[in-house]
Amino acid sequence: MPKANKLTLAVLINAALITSTYASEQSEAKGLVEDAKGDILFRTGYLNRDKKNGVKDTSSYAQTAMVKLETGFTQGLVGFGAGVIGDGSFKLGSNNNSGNGMIPKRPDGSAYDHWARGGGFVKARISNTTVTYGTQILDLPVLASNTTRLVPEYFEGVLATSREINGLELTAGKFTKDQYSDQINRDGRKLDSAVVWGAKYKFDDNLNAAYFGLDSKDKLDRHYINVNYKQPLDKNSGLTYDLSAYHTKWDEKGSTYSSTTDDLSNRKNTIWALSSTYNTGPHSVMLAYQQNNGNTGYDYGENADGAQSIYLPNSYLSDFIGNSEKSAQLQYNVDFGGYGVPGLSWTTAYVYGWDIKVKNLTDNAKEREFFNQVKYTVQSGFAKDASLRLRHSYYRASDDYQTNAYIGDTNEWRIWLDIPVKLF
């Protein structure tokens, strides 16, 4: 895309054209060794999906160590550095892992007993602009690595991030490989090329806005916008308003699972969500409304467009993204630190979706989910920052949505024990 190429070039030369309004990150570089970082995250993960209506259950139980070793930047006008990221894992016990994204499979369908993945990257920085090339975990609304399985999804390519103007962050990049969480193949999702660009701007302490775009060759074009406003009420409470939206148009070769049109050249979708959160002390309550428009659902992940690329509120086990679907959510969260148990939190939510179009079946399919998560993070001592997270979803859908093979009636458990270790 011409616009994407122009923005990439603009980000790369930004430091030479704009006078920084605040301290330069590169001017504070101490050196390759002095600013080096090394971390290992040990994770024991368990995922179980208790399926209904005669569908086979899936479950996986495994152990991994996720490593990131990264140098600092050399000193001077332009700083250089390098690093590696990766994971080594082994399964625990027997596994019925098909369909849950946890453990890679051999061609015969059997699960690997142990496996390893990862890669290296190099980086350069001038002023407040950093360019990274190699294996990366992405956190962009239009291209986000899945981090909700045992190990993360990896992309390979180049990403530039620039913060030359106070409050403004520009992003541009191009990626050519996508390795999902349960894949050994470094390009298991067969990505041709994905060009991303975007900007985030912080107007003040209360108002933020963002725009991101994606052009995945022969697959899709996607655009995302977000506006977030915080309204303080008093020192212990406030309201947060958030508006997010995606617009996607699929190319003829792009895949969708929930289209109601046979015209492969005219598949498009716009999905938007509006939420309001009231917080007071350790409590918060969120109300959210989400709506789909177009002739297909908001299908993501299968086009090498990031299996976590859904920065919308009504996303748990189900994302409530069916064709023409409307959904509403009520969420409650409490931080028990306010009651003398720091590190303990509980989130509960109920989401209901309706008016889902299923081709040749109905225009009024429904789904609902009751979600609960308890998490405890150790606050001090030798196990500081270790965490245990228990998550449960009760999901049900109408028969006509079951036929469409979206998720199907499911009771799901996810249990993660994370133990981070800082090497240096």
Task: Chart the SSEs and their pairings.
Elements: H1 2-12, H2 14-17, E1 37-51, E2 58-70, E3 78-91, E4 114-126, E5 129-136, E6 139-140, E7 143-144, E8 154-162, E9 168-179, E10 194-202, E11 207-216, E12 220-234, E13 237-250, E14 267-280, E15 283-294, E16 326-335, E17 344-358, E18 362-377, E19 387-397, H3 399-403, E20 410-422
Antiparallel strand pairs: 1-2, 1-20, 2-3, 3-4, 4-5, 5-8, 6-7, 8-9, 9-10, 10-11, 11-12, 12-13, 13-14, 14-15, 15-16, 16-17, 17-18, 18-19, 19-20
Give the SSE string.
HHEEEEEEEEEEEEEEEEEEEHE
Q: How confident is the prediction overall: mean pLDDT? A: 93
Q: What is the level 1 CATH name of the domain at 218-423?
A: Mainly Beta
Structural class: mainly beta
Query: Mind summarizing the main beta sheet?
Result: 18 strands, antiparallel, barrel
Strand content is over 45%
The CATH architecture category of the domain at 218-423 equals: Beta Barrel
Distance between the termini: 42 Å
Uncertain runs: 15-21
Signal peptide: 1-23
Keywords: Signal, Transport
Pfam family, one: OprD
Family: Belongs to the outer membrane porin (Opr) (TC 1.B.25) family.
Description:
The protein is mainly beta and about 425 residues long. It has a domain at about 220-424: Porin. It has three helices and 20 strands. It has helices at about 1-10, 15, 400-405, and strands at about 35-50, 60-70, 80-90, 115-125, 130-135, 140, 145, 155-160, 170-180, 195-200, 205-215, 220-235, 235-250, 265-280, 285-295, 325-335, 345-360, 360-375, 385-395, 410-420. The strands form two sheets. It has an 18-stranded antiparallel β-barrel. Strands 6-7 form a two-stranded antiparallel ribbon. Mean pLDDT is about 95; it is low at about 15-20.
